[in-house]
Amino acid sequence: MKLFLDTAEVKVIEALSETGLVDGVTTNPSLVAKAGGDFFDALAAICRAVAGPVSAEVVATQADAMVAEGERLRRVADNIVVKLPLTFEGLKACRRLKDKGHPANVTLCFSVPQALLAAKAGAMFVSPFIGRLDDIGEDGMALICDIRTAYDNYGLDTQILAASIRSEAHVRQAILAGADAATLPPPWFEAMVKHPLTDKGLAAFLDDWAKSGRGGLV
Ligand code: E4P
Asked: What are the structural domains, with CATH classification, of the chain?
């Protein structure tokens, strides 16, 4: 399972990529607006920091303009994936970009039929938004499971990218539900390594070692 960072903050991405555990990055217009600075400079820096896919979203709403924006984004770096909204225009652009050799992440997916359309349009990734479904009283994680079933039933190779992750439970459930990837806000990425018994156990090991009078191993 791939783990992506869901942020446009270059310094945060650079720091966390040093763990060797970051497989990619997702951005969206809201995250880019929040990060500030020059969009294309930031995108280039993110693509240098992370070898895997970096999703960058178009802001046009018509297929022709989406394709043009997608081609502009793809000129930033080879690992750019063009992020397109799940509309008919976005799906048309997805197919056209795919036919030109450009990968796409179809975003704002909230249903199984939408996910089927994204796969039929040739998307490399589909991004179901877990948290935003939970926000309206639906079960976001059930959608991940249902899309997994649908894609497996029909042998569709579009990768399920669990997005809009807002809690530790979302992270755990996305892993268990068979999502191909999850994109995590940096705090949730950092929280993955944490367990109180790990900290407690390590403190006890080091304490016992120190009490034995031994020093470092090298
Ligand atoms: C990532 O691709 C999405 O844009 C992001 O996960 C949305 O998260 P949010 O619903 O918390 O804004």
From this structure: 2-212 (3.20.20.70)
